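Batch job 17 of 40 flagged for manual review because the log was empty.
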Amino acid sequence: MATTAEGQPFLRTSSLQPHDMSRMVGRKNKIFQSKIFKIAEIQDELMPDAESEDQWDRIVAQQLRREGLPPEEASGDAEESYTWSLYLSRLWLEWKIEMTWQDWLARGEALQRIVDAEQELADEEAGKTREPESMTRERTQSAGAANVSGRGFNLLSPLEIQGKAIEMDGHDIFSSQAWAAVVRSRNGMLRSWADKAQLARGNTVY
């Protein structure tokens, strides 16, 4: 069994890996990397523009109040800002990255079982005597094998949806109960991001 630099596990069946296998592994790596790059793009490129839009909305609202004109319908809450939409985008990407990582851990464990079974069969055919299972496991762990026994726990998914299939309402994943549960469970973290951004500008959130 082998892994990519990103942690994606796969079985190397020969020294010269089949082209289709290399293409599949490379494609999954690019998808994983693209999510990470997108988070960096949100922080470094999109967020400054969104903050400028929010600042402009605040200036317009202040001017309307000075002129005694009816206030805008927006309440000024952080969740109605342009930056909040980017916070949600970042959370979405981090959630998807965590889901991919958990999937890779599960796949790695399954592939390792295949490797162990094949090795055991090869040893039996060669007439070799295998060590007791307890000794083999102890040696494997001491050699630095990853412990993926907790692979079913997603740090960004609330307990209410742990281990459950994600069901979409229609074709919109953002309207799914799973995503709504993630947003509810991470609302405090999202607001802390908004608080830090406001403090950096020397303003008050509410």
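Reviewer: the log was empty due to a logging misconfiguration, but the result itself is present. The CA atoms of residues 167 and 177 lie 7 Å apart. Unflagging and moving on to job 18.
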